[in-house]
Amino acid sequence: MKPDKNLFEAPPWQAIAKLCIPALVSIVVMMLYNMADMYFVAWSKDLNQVAAVSLAMPVFTVMMAVSTMVGNGGCTRVAQALGMKDSAKVQQLSAICFWASIGFGALFAVLCFVFQQPLLHFLGTDAETYEFTRSYVLILAAGAPLILLNHALGGMLRGEGLVLTGLAANMISTVSNIILDPLFIVVFRWGIGGAAAATVLGNALAVLYVFLYRQRHKRTCTIEVRPAYANSLRALGSILALGLPNAISSTLSGLAGTFSNRLLVGYGNDAVAAMGAAGKAVMVVTMIQMGICMGVQPLLSYLYGGKDWKKLKGIVYRILLLTVSLGIVLTLGIWFVRDWAIGLFIKEEAAAALGVRQMGFMLLMGPMIGLYYLASNFLQAAGNATAASISSALRQGLLLIPLLYLMESLFQLPGLALAHTAADAASVLITCVMAVLWYRKVSRNSPASMKTA
Asked: What is the pTM (predicted TM-score) of this model?
């Protein structure tokens, strides 16, 4: 069966709707997935366990960075190969993504188990949170191959234009996690370890679904070993290079989270839990805008691979309008329900009030953060891995990490939230400049085809 090219070749708004609506549903599901563990752990009314979820989250973030590097890189390369009508290349790229995700997952698990003690100390655990964090981290690490495989398969599905199938797999993973969380945490009384076990099992069920789907439907993408042989290292390098910007962003986000938590520990575990809850609430604004831009990325890659510059320009302008409009609406919406949003994760009144204050600072760049995701995804879709990597490194590392220490020294606890706002503002500006410069370069190469769509 051939890939669904009608999705990529539809009129601009229709193509955007077909790609972004499932992506938005998927991102909402992902947010529920991301919030579920902290929400159900909060039922214990033990702030040490809630803090442990925040302390362990950088490990999960780094794990997702590896899966993103394989999955998003594979998605972009597969979509480009489809645009060039190269089915053999599609098979090779998809096979490499499949086996690389399993290998990287196994390596990640081994490293976490071997270096668990220094890792847990680096995360900022203390006597009250050490065992809780250890339980969460090691169970997640044991399931790393399945978690990485789930996201790699999802990237291949998006690259083929099978967004609804990818959404179904995502739904299975998240709904399973949400159902299993209260069962494992509350009924079985496994505590925070039950939250991690629910995450692993949810990913396993999603992988099973994709396997069953591929048995019923023959696709251009494959998971067979044979297509991965020829020039495998070069092909893997091309995948990782394009997935690197997202991986850099996620890895540095994890590191920044660790440094932030280490500073927060000085203000008590209540502050750690409050900042974690604020981050979960603000996630609604940032991830929905990110979801739109990631949803349309296969289309941008397909148009770039097929050299359809006119339609590419039109899609970029439309997504810009969409993300800014949604950013304004979402920021205002979350601000008006801020007390309720924080209360989902923290039941203790003083800690909840602290979380509300921190969230207010972190929402300041909410209306504009979509510009960052659009520019970054455009650079990645156009094959400019260097610029996209620089963009990701700036926002979550080169800017954010030093700003955490600078702003904390100037403004104490509120400075840790303000550091995120300052890093976002600078990253939006720098990334948009890089994207415009690259866009103009492409425009000069095809002046006749870059008229208004």
From this structure: 0.70
